[in-house]
């Protein structure tokens, strides 16, 4: 019996292949272990920590599919495996967002938007995709529901996949725009070029997979794509395995700076250490206004151009940031940083104490340096 042939009594329509899930479990497990090892080796926690998690989602999904292959009348295995396997690719997309964000932190003076806004905007919308998939996939796979209920599930997944496709398109345009500007400024090292090319390939792979799922759910559960298992193994399993192998072979943690505070000077060679490019707006505002249109209109964004500051000014900003850094308890009790002297709400309520005689008040507003002093001579990453 070939892949896609009808199997009486199977809620999958066909008899699921019993050997293929084992192969992919082993390969994704090996790849996930390598992801974890390379993340620890290169200390790239903030950029690639989710790589092992994405592999774990795929492994668990394939494991349940293997169990379901021996219990073709059990609806639970079909639903659970479908939801888990469909949740893996959006996590890989999420990792690509973090990678681009780290590149923009490294070359801030060429960033089309604030690097942190790449994360908040794309990650926030990606979370919406995950919720829609979780709510829609189980309804779509549940053959015991009514046609109307399954159609609702199909519509939810279709909406999620459409949003994903739009996100990938916007993400690709953003990366390409930055790439063009960086090439023109001759600011890209060999390592950064490799990371960008890998980013494009990875995003393309996830997009192809997204298109496959979009076609499958638009055509419905009675379509050729849905009823033929071969499409699943090619456009879901194989291409996502290629994606995870690609990110292992060219692991971004090996080629990107470990800290967001490290940035490339305008000469394209010198690496300097700054205060980090913070966005003092509430996170919910950054998600809905990633470009900071109000800041651009008022000129507020110009005050954050630390890359044109002297070494002395950068050192002062680092000291101020360290002094204002919140402890773990404060972060847990007030995760949105609403209260306190520097909180989004608290700073408008709490009056700062006037400076005592002989004491110079510390300025908290950045200013652009009139001179570009000596630069650190650390080699570029």
Automatic annotation (TrEMBL):
Main location: membrane
GO CC annotations, alphabetized: membrane
Keywords: Membrane, Transmembrane, Transmembrane helix
Membrane topology: Multi-pass membrane protein
Transmembrane domains' residue ranges: 20-37, 49-70, 118-141, 161-182, 194-215, 230-250
Annotated Basic and acidic residues bias: 362-381
Region feature Disordered, mapped onto this chain: 355-381
Subcellular location per the Swiss-Prot or TrEMBL entry: Membrane
InterPro entries in the record: RTA1 (IPR007568)
Pfam families: RTA1 (PF04479)
Protein's UniProt name: RTA1 like protein-domain-containing protein
């Amino acid at each position: 019996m070939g892949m896609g042939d009808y199997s009486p009594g199977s809620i999958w329509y066909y008899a699921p292949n019993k050997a293929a899930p084992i192969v992919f479990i082993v390969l994704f497990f090996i790849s996930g272990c390598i992801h974890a090892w390379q993340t620890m080796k290169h200390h790239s926690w903030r950029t690639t920590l989710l790589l092992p998690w994405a592999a774990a989602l795929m492994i668990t999904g394939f494991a349940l599919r293997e169990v379901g292959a021996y219990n073709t009348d059990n609806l639970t295995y079909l639903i659970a495996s479908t939801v888990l396997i469909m949740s893996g690719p959006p996590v890989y997309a999420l990792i690509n967002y973090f990678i681009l964000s780290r590149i923009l932190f490294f070359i801030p003076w060429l960033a089309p938007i604030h690097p942190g806004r790449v994360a908040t905007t794309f990650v926030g919308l990606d979370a919406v995709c995950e919720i829609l998939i979780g709510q829609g996939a189980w309804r779509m796979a549940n053959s015991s529901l009514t046609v109307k209920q399954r159609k609702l599930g199909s519509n939810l997944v279709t909406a999620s996949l459409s949003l994903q496709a739009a996100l990938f398109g916007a993400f690709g345009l953003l990366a390409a725009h930055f790439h063009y500007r960086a090439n023109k400024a001759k600011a890209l090292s060999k390592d950064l070029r490799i990371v960008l090319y890998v980013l494009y390939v990875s995003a393309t792979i996830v997009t192809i997979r997204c298109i496959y799922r979009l076609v499958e759910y638009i055509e419905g559960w009675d379509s050729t794509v849905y009823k033929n298992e071969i499409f699943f193994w090619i456009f879901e399993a194989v291409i996502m395995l290629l994606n995870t192998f690609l990110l292992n072979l060219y692991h971004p943690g090996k080629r990107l700076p470990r800290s967001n505070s490290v940035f490339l000077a305008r000469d394209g060679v010198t690496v300097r250490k700054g205060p980090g490019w913070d966005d003092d707006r509430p996170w919910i505002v950054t998600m809905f206004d990633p470009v900071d249109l109000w800041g651009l209109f008022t000129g507020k964004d110009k005050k954050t151009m630390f890359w044109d500051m002297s070494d002395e000014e950068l050192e002062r900003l680092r000291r101020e940031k360290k002094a204002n850094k919140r402890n773990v308890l404060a972060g847990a009790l007030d995760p949105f940083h609403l209260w306190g002297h520097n909180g989004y709400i608290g700073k408008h309520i709490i009056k700062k104490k006037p400076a005592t005689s002989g004491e110079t008040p510390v300025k908290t507003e950045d200013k652009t340096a009139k001179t570009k002093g000596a630069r650190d001579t650390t080699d570029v990453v």
